């Protein structure tokens, strides 16, 4: 191999390894992220009052969006070193530094006012009504239902009434 070919081969190999480091998850699938080894996609929340979302993983990339609501749930879809590519409820996405994110699980009520119920059943008693856009602490998720806390009151809500969890997740 000539010196030029070896250099070109090394460059292409390095580019391929770097691109592989940006593990992007297919919708509904789970891929191990290269930066943390944690599954992708996964949910986090905004841990700061303001976070710049950039077009790429680094400060040299321009700001495309600014997230301004602490606690807002964000879906991590890719990782690169200390940067996480996140997507919000409306599909806005960008690269955010990991220091601006929190592992605290939250969820936001979607579409319209929804009832949080005393039990994970449509027939149980409402304990709270939450308007669309209300963010609460996500406590547990089971098949079809999640338990969340809003204003110190916890209740169950159907999974399809919130954004902040993956339909395949189960946790207590």
Question: Can you characterise this structure?
Answer:
With 172 residues, the protein is mainly beta. It folds into two domains: 3-104, SH3 type barrels; 107-163, SH3 type barrels. It has one helix and 16 strands. It has one helix spanning 3-21; strands at residues 31-32, 39-40, 42-46, 51-54, 63-67, 73-80, 83-87, 93-97, 101-102, 106-109, 114-117, 126-130, 135-142, 145-150, 153-158, 162-163. The strands form five sheets. It has a five-stranded antiparallel β-sheet, with no helix packed on it. A five-stranded antiparallel β-sheet has the order 15-14-13-10-16, with no helix packed on it. β1 (31-32) and β2 form a beta hairpin. It is elongated and about 55 Å long. Mean pLDDT is 85; it is low at 1-33.
Low-confidence stretches: 1-33
Strand content: 35-45%
Give the overall shape. Answer: elongated
Radius of gyration: 19 Å
Whole-number mean pLDDT:
85
CATH superfamily of the largest domain: SH3 Domains
The description of the largest β-sheet is: 5 strands, antiparallel
Q: Do you know the CATH architecture of the largest domain?
A: Roll
CATH topology of the largest domain: SH3 type barrels
Strand order of the largest sheet: 8-7-6-3-9
**What is the number of E strands?**
16
Number of domains: 2
What order do the SSEs take from the amino end to the carboxyl end, as H and E? HEEEEEEEEEEEEEEEE
The termini sit apart by 58 Å
Instruction: Please give the CATH class of the largest domain.
Output: Mainly Beta
Structural class: mainly beta
Helix coverage percent: 10-25%
- The helix count comes to 1
């Amino acid at each position: 191999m000539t010196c030029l070919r070896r250099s070109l081969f090394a460059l292409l190999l390095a580019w391929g390894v770097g691109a592989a480091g940006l593990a992007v998850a297919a919708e509904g699938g789970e891929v191990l992220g290269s930066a943390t080894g944690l599954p992708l996609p996964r949910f986090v929340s905004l841990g700061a009052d303001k976070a710049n979302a950039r077009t790429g993983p680094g400060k040299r990339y321009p700001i495309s969006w600014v997230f301004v609501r602490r606690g807002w749930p964000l879906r991590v879809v890719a990782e690169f070193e200390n940067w996480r590519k996140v997507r919000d409820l409306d599909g806005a996405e960008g690269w955010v530094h990991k220091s601006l994110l929190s592992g605290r699980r939250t969820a936001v009520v979607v579409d319209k006012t929804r009832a949080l119920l005393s039990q994970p059943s449509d027939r149980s008693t409402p304990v709270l009504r939450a308007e669309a856009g209300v963010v609460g602490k996500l406590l547990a998720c089971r098949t079809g239902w999640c338990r969340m806390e809003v204003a110190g009151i916890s209740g169950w809500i159907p999974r399809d009434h919130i954004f902040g969890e993956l339909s395949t997740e189960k946790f207590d």
